[in-house]
Amino acid sequence: MNVIKLIAAGLAALGLTGGAAFAEWPEKPITYIVSFGAGGNADIVARMNAEALSNALGVPVNVINKPGGAHIPATMSVLEAPADGYTLFNWSPPSFMIVPLTRKTPYEPLKDFIPLYAGISASNALYVRSDSPYKTFEEFIEGAKEKKLGMGVNNLGAPPNLSAVQLANEFGLEFKTVALKTVPATLAGLIGGQVDVAVGQVASIHAYGDEIRPLIILDNQRKDYFEKDLPGIRTVGEAFPGKNAGTWVHGGLAVKSGTPQAIVDKLLAASEFMGTQEFISQIPKAVSYDWTHGVEQTTALIQSGIDLYSPLLDGLGLLHSR
Amino acid sequence: MLDIAALTTASGLLIDPLTMGLLILGIVVGLVIGILPGLGPPIAIALALPFTFHLDAVPAMALLLGIYSAAIYGGSISAIAVGIPGTGAAIATVLDGHNMYKSGRGGEALGFSLAGSIIGGLVSALFLMLVAPLLAGFAVQFGPREYLAISVFGLAVVVRVAGKSLPKGLLMGGLGIFLTTWGLDELNGTERYTFGSYHLYEGLPLVPFLVGLFAMSEVLIGAERAARKVDFSNTSLTVRLPGLKTLGRMKDVIFRSSIIGTVIGIIPGEGAAVGAFFAYSEAKRRSKTPERYGTGIPEGIVAPETANNATVAGALVPTLTLGVPGSPAAAVLLGALLIQGLTPGPKLFSEEPDLMYAIFLGLFAINIAMMFIGLVAIRFAAQLIRVPTSVIVPTVMLLSFVGIYSVSNSFFNVGVLLSAGILGYVIRKLGYSMVPLSIGFVLGPILENSLRQSLTIADGSVTEFFDTPIGLAIYAALALTILWEPIASRRRRATEET
Q1: Among A174, B90, B148, B278, which one is most buried in terms of CB atoms within 10 A?
Q2: Cross-chain Cβ contact B140/A179 below 8 Å
Q3: Do A284 and B339 touch (CB under 8 A)?
């Protein structure tokens, strides 16, 4: 028996190995639960995150996609696993914001999870076909008052839909809202003439450039990345001071509450790379990225989203009373 | 229309040894995953996705497309040799494929499915290369009202594969659709048949359900009969690719199935399973001897197998040109392109002609390589007939348990697998057919969503609801297929009387 084993045995006898075990984390592959299907923007950024974490931690980080079911099965599968840092969660607006605000969920995001960072982001913009009679946002408003236009959004209750609702409320409009499931499908539906106008993301322009025309960015304040995607396009807040148009789309990493601080610290250190220019430059063009790092900062970011969307959903009669 | 310069650059990119190596690796991996029930093309591609992070776009696509094509083909091997479809795309192949195998013509059946798959893959790749930009315009025309027409048309397929009794077949189709209504309402979030469990919010998961329905019930039926005796002579062990003469006799079926597969592939969201069903039912409808379908005839294998592989190139059309995946597997492929820093959409073709042509040429290369690799694989598969059913079916079953669990990490899905198996067993014992049930299950969600979206678009107006030239053409074709027989027979009678 060598000295190390002797010390280990001694520590074990003293009941001190608990701390030592955490210090050794991670010693086996980590599971990274993504509540979206494989292949979408959220999945891709999650996979890039998983790879960066794997490089930093020295163990495989395996992405598992559990789409559907209002993101609840995926979220619950993280909470059903032990809080040992081996099951990570890719939080997103539906799982941490929209779903808990609109229906009874078996979890409370900020109570049951510790959010570590936010990376992927998005802002919504209003698009028409490039051959649309509406050349400007003002012409569109006129047209929408004359006739009930078909409005394409991805899913009812999702941020693009909420942007459309806010637009309708602020400008006194009414739409036929058609949910076409994903943002690309919504824009393809716009191009194919299924709807007259659609809410896409600011970065969507990179895929559909000549076929669609942006009218306005559905946000109050200008964000740094708008100019890269939609140069010269105004935000609602800039064009119509006093009108409200907020988008809150963020996503990142969370672990189950009760995960030891030592593991949280290691994960935070391992995720630092995701805020560097080297990492951000690899993100696909059609994805916006807005880096927030740290438990407190990310929690505050999520709280700001709850504050933004609660009154909006309440106005729609969708807010779930707890 | 062909850009020769881009074509030359693209072939240069493909001939690279790494790319060719990955292409072959992809085919081998795809074949294995396709053969195993419970692991389908989307999962196969998702598993390989992380490896493409450090590859260039062309080798990455060669690997993933190899997996995609081979996984769809691989599903037919287990469908024929064990009677358990390895993927949803191979369900239609079970009917004739497994019957032919059991009648001692296993090697031949496997040869037909390989030949059909390769031809379907090649023909649709050719279409894609020649007219992809035009096809993109076609794909974008498909909105809710057009999907609705397709789903209604698809349900007519149920009638043709209903089995011996039409009422029983319709009942099964209806049951399949009913089961897809379980889970959260996709449009307004209402809980339907969730029985208070959030596990059912997602509804019944497709893959565990279908694998359970076919594989589990096969085990239970097999357990009853203990050791089923399969007649086989040594000829059934020799794998034979059909000769040109045989294929020439089926050229109509092959051509039509290739077109059907390509078109169904192009329509966003409709995958290989739907393409295979459509082709099977169309071949049966056109046949002079429709009653022979289901008994183990070559056309019954060639039609669905040609069509399901033809969906691969078809599905790439909306994926590459609209950024909207043409099938669940193409959704993962789309992700691989995004990782490469590419933005699939209308601009991709003009911005990246080399890549586009490399993809088309890659599909040709994959199908040719798959012929040789497939021949080796089915040589083993043909030998499986020597293994008693009581050994092989439980083995496949075990593998599908592992497959279902490892993909989702969910015991709930294993539960679905078991329950669907019991359902399948009861259905078979009562003399109902499971194929209409699975068609209903595949088409149900598309039917419901497209109907409700169409109603929103129409906003109460009937003219608006039918304001869809493509949709009307589909309805007209449907009416024609239904009314043709009665009209023709009345005319015959009229001429006989005069």
Answers
A1: B90
A2: no
A3: yes
Query: In chain B, what are the domain boundaries?
Result: 4-467, 468-498
Show the domains of chain A with their CATH numbers. Answer: 28-122+249-315 (3.40.190.150), 124-239 (3.40.190.10)
Locate B360 and state its tokens: 């088309």
Residue A17 to residue A9: CA distance in whole angstroms: 9
Q: Which of residues 193-212 of B touch A (CB under 8 A)?
A: 198-203
- Mark residue A225 as left, alpha or beta (left: phi above 0; alpha: psi -120 to 50; beta: remaining): alpha
Structure tokens given for B222: 């097999």
User: Minimal Cα–Cα distance from A70 to chain B, Å?
Assistant: 7
By Cβ distance, the residue of A51, A77, A187 closest to B50 is A51
By three-state DSSP, how is residue A215 classified? strand
pLDDT digits (tens, 9 = 90+) for B188-242: 778 899 888 888 888 898 888 988 888 888 788 877 765 555 555 555 667 888 8
What is the rounded CA–CA span in Å between residue B106 and residue B232? 9
DSSP H helical segments within B287-352, as ranges?
298-322, 328-339, 348-351
Residue B225 burial (10 A CB sphere; 0-12, 13-18, 19+):
exposed
Report the relative pairing of strands A30-34 and A61-65 from DSSP bridges. Answer: parallel
Cβ of B456 within 8 Å of Cβ of A76? The answer is no
Backbone φ and ψ of B186, nearest 5°: -65, -25
What is the ipTM for the molecules in this complex? Answer: 0.79
Distance from CA of A86 to the nearest CA of B (A): 14
CB contact at 8 A, B73 and B370 = yes
Give B225→chain A minimum CA distance, Å. Answer: 38
Residues facing A198 on adjacent strands = A127, A152
Tell me: the pLDDT tens digits for B402-430? 888 877 778 888 999 999 999 999 998 99
Does A77 contact B at CB distance below 8 Å?
yes
Chain A's closest residue to B320, CA to CA, is A207
